[in-house]
Amino acid sequence: MVVCVKLMMQSQCHQPGLLSQCRPVFPLSLRAGVAGRRAATVHLYVSPTGSDSNGGRQVSHPVKTLQHALNMLESDGFRGNNVFVELMAGYHYMTSTLRFHVPHNGTVGGQPIPSSLFHHVTDTHVLQRLPLEARGKVLELDLTGAGIQDLGTLTTYGFYHLWKAPLEIFINGRPLKLAQWPNDGFINIKCLPDGEHGRRFTYDSGNRDSCWAQETAPWAYGWWHRSWADSSLPVSSVDPHTHTITLAKDSQYGLRVGHYTPTGPQVGNALQGGYFRVINMLCEIDQPGEYYIDRTTKKLYVWPNTPHQTLTSSDVVYGSMLPQCLKIEKRFTDLHFEDFTIEGCRQFGVDANSVSGLTFSNMEFKNTGSFGIHCTGDCRRVSVLASEFHDVGGGMYIAGGDRTTLTSSEIVVRDNHLWEFSRCGAFPGDAIHVAGVGARVEHNHVHHGQYSGIRWNGNDHVIEYNHVHHMCWNASDCGALHTGRQWTWRGNVVRYNYIHHTLRYMPGADVRGIMLDDEYSSALIEHNVFFDNEVHVNIGGGRDNVIRYNVMYNATKYSIQVDARGMGSDPAHNHIASLTQTLEASPYKTPLWQSRYPELANILSKHPEAPEGNQIYENVFYNTVDKERIHYSSGTRTVRKDYFDVHHNLRAYKTTDFWSPDDADFRFRCEAAQWASSHHVPQPVTLDQTVSSRAPVPCDSPTTTVAPASTVPQTSYMPDGSSPNTLYPNIPKGGNAEALPRYFASALNGTYKENTGTQAGTEEGCLSRAAQEWKWCGSPSNGRVIAIYGTTGAMTFATEGCYFAEYGCHGSDNPGFHRDIYAEKHQNGSTDEEGCLKRAHAQWPYCGSDPTRPYTSIFGPTGHFRTAGAGCWIKLQSCPAHRNLEGFFYDAWGATNLGTDHDKMECFDRAEYFWTRCGSQADAPVTAFYRPAAANHTVP
C-alpha cells in the first residue's frame, strides 16, 4: 500500500504549527506505505475545517486530523490500496505526536496562542524589574488562561546533550530567545575563589547584575573550561555586591579565568574557555525577540520581534508542546514525506529507530530543540533530499548499516540547504551527522554554524560535492568537517567539496576546514577546494590518511597541521588505551576486514602510537609568504617520511595561477596549469558543481511568478543617493559641490565645484569634505558646510551638534533639519557620534514606524549619518557585469519574494546576491541597508 498526503491548494502564509502546509515555495505532501502492484487508487481528504466523523473520501466530506486519517489506513476500503491523503488548505495543528505503526499514545501537543490574549505589562513590581527600554514594549500572557499547562523544564543544553527544550515561543515562524545578557558575546570569568573545580566565580558586569539576584530561576550558558565544550547550567545564587555567581551544578571540566575579547585576535589554546552569559532572566528582556516564563505565576513575558514590536491579529503566535512531531518505530518501512514544514518540536522533528525506506523530499525543518531528523539504531535506505534545515538544534543524525559485515545503510543526504542549525547549544548540533556504514552526503549547502557542519562515524561513507562555509563561529578546536578518536572508521572518502571561511573567533586551538581529531585514521581527502580557512586540514596524530589533488588557497595560519599526539605523555592528548579498546571490540581480524582495510590488521605490532603512513601529495598551495604549508605541531620528531610523506606538491606564488580567486574559481592556469598537466592532476571542482546534482535553471528563465512590489517606501529626507536631490537640484551630475555660510571669506561664499578633496572622485571622499572644510573654517557653532556629490545627488553637512533630517512625527507636517535635543541631553549626542546616530533607530518606531516618514540622524562634527525607515535598500558602487544595474535602489523583488523588508538577514544576503550578479569584483562592493534596524552589510 502507498499512502500519500498531498496539498490540494497552496497558500502564502507563515508556518504557525508543527506541520504546516504554508511553505512559500513548495506545496505540501506526505507519502507513507509499501507499494502494491495491483492496488487501487483511493483519495482521503483532510481539512482543518473537516470532521473526523466524515468518511473522508469526497472533497466535500473531509476528515479533520492527520492522525485520524492515518488510523483509517488499516480500515476496509483503504487497506491494500494506494491511498493519497490530500491535505486541503489551512493550518494543520497537531495536538499529539504523529505516530506510525504504534498505538496512539501521544502527549498533549502544541497549540496556537491568539494574539488578543497578550496585554502590556501593568504590574508595578514586574515593570520595575524590566529594563527601562523594555517598559511599554513587553507584553504578558497568562499561560493557564491560554490553555497551556505543560511548561516543561529548563535542562542543560550544549556539550553532548540532545536537548529536550521546555515550552518555547515562536512568532510568525521565527523563534524567540530566552532573555539573556549580553545579547551578543560573553562575559569573562575574573576569579575562582574555590579553584577550577569549584562552583563560584567573579566577573565584571558594571552594575548590570544588580537585578540578577531577584531572579527566581537564573541560568548561565558558557564555555566554562574549554572552548569546544559548551553547556548551560542553573545558577544557585548571585551576589551583586561582590559580583559573584555560584552555579548549582559542576561544569563537566571545571572553570577557568576567561580571556575572551569581542573583537580582534583571540588567545591560544592555553588560555581557552572561561566565559559565559546569563540566561532566563526577566530583568534582561532588553531587545525585541526575547522572552521569559515565570513558572510560579505561569506568566509569559515577551518583547515581540515583529516590525512594529507589538502583536496584531495578523501575527501568528504559538508554543512548542510535543517532544517529537513525528515518531516512527518498529522498523516501519517505505514512508515518504514531501513538501511541508515540521517545526515547533521540543526535541526532535522526526524521531525514528531502525526504519527502512524513509524518504524526506522538499521539506523544511525548523524550530526544534535538537535534531530535525533523528534516526538511530539500524536505519536503512533513508534519504533526505532537497530540504531546508534552519533554527534547529542540529540538522540530522542518521545511523545505519552493519559494521560487522560492512553492509551499507544506503543512506543518502543530497541537495539540502542547512544554515543556523545550532540554535542554542553548539555541540552536538551538527548540520549533518552520519554513522554506521555506506552513507552518501552530497551536493549540500551548509553554512553559518556554531560548531561542526558535517560529522561522520563509521565506515565507507562518501562526502562529496558539498559547499561548506562559515563554520565554527562560536567555538575553537573545531572542524567544518569533523571526525575523530578512531582507528577503525575506515574507507571514508571526502572529495570534490568547497570548504571556506572557517575562521577562529574564540580563544583556543585552531579551527580547520577538515579536522581528523585524536588519531583518526585512513581518510581519503581529495579533489577539494579550500580557501580562507584558518587551517585547511589537520591530521591529529592519526595514521594512513591521504591528502591529494586539493587546492589549498590563502590559509590564515597554515595550510595543513599535523602532529604526533599519540606519542606524548599528556593523557589529555594520548588516547591509545581507548583506541585499543575500540579496536579489539571491532571485527578487524576477520577476513572481510583484513581484505578491505589491510593497514588495520597489524596495527598493534606497528607502533600504533605513531602517525605512520600518512601521505600528502600533488596538492596546490597558495599562501602569503609568512604562512606555512605544512606545520608540524609536535616538533622535529614528526618530520619523518614514514610518518608524513609530503611530495610532488606545488606552491603557487601568484594569484594569477588561478582563474579568478575573487570569484571562487580556482581552476589552474599559467604555471599551475603546466604543473598540473605534467603531474596528471585534474582541474579542481568548480563551485557550481557543488550546488546541485540536478540540471541548472537556464539563465533566461524567470525565477519567480510573483510580481515585484508596486509601492516603494519613502526615501530619506536628506538625499543619500537613493533618490534625486530635490533640496539642491541644480548641482551638475559630474561635479562635487560645497555650500558655505555667508559670513566666511568672500572667496569661499556660495556654492561651487570642489576638485581638491580627499579620495577624489568618490562619494565618500566628497562627503567627507564637509567636515574637513568646517573644521578648517574654525568649527563655527553657527555655521554649516554642505557637501553634495553631484554624480548621485547624495549630500551631508557639517556643523556643531546632533540633528534629525525628517518628514515629521505623529502627523506633524514639519519636514526639515532639526536639532536632536534629546540625544544631546541624554546620550552626549553633541560629542559622541554613536550616541547621536543611534537615535534614528529609536525615533522611527517611536513615531509609528511610518514607511512614509523615515528618520536620518546626522552627527554634525563629522557629517556621518544613519537612516531608519522601511525597506531593504541596495547600493552599488558599480556593476561591471550588468551595466543596467547601478546606484541606490529599493529591493522591490526581494520585498515581495523574500521578505527583505522584515528580515534583516534576508536583506543582508541580497548584498552578496547583487555583488555576485555584478561580477564579484573586489573593487565594486555592494551594501544592503536594512532600514528598520538602521543596519547595513557590505560585500565583500
UniProtKB/TrEMBL annotation:
InterPro entries: Beta_helix, PbH1, Pectin_lyas_fold, Pectin_lyase_fold/virulence. Residues 692-722 are annotated as: Disordered. Residues 336-415, 431-566 form the Right handed beta helix domain. Gene3D superfamilies: Single-stranded right-handed beta-helix, Pectin lyase-like (2.160.20.10). Residues 701-713 have a biased composition (Low complexity). SMART domains: PbH1. Coiled coil: none annotated. Pfam families: Beta_helix (PF13229). This is Right handed beta helix domain-containing protein. The lineage of its organism: Eukaryota, Metazoa, Spiralia, Lophotrochozoa, Mollusca.
